[in-house]
Design brief:
This protein is of the alpha+beta class. 24% of the residues lie in helices and 18% in strands. The protein is flat, with a radius of gyration of 13 Å.
Length: 55
């Protein structure tokens, strides 16, 4: 699978658990904290809100 996922959470145990589950299912995973303190995550993320179905 070519999908890359960024897992962002301030709780390391939750972040690591989710990252491991995604990696076991073939995803490439990067992790970071919501405070943006992890260099792997790059700059802090803005809040994302889904726009709903586009059909």
């Amino acid at each position: 699978m070519d999908a890359e996922v960024l897992v962002v959470d301030d709780e390391p145990s939750i972040r690591d658990l989710l990252a491991e589950a995604l990696e076991l299912n073939g995803f490439s995973v990067r992790t970071g904290s919501a405070s943006g303190s992890s260099p792997a995550a790059g700059p802090p993320c803005r809040r994302w809100r889904p726009t709903g179905p586009t059909s």
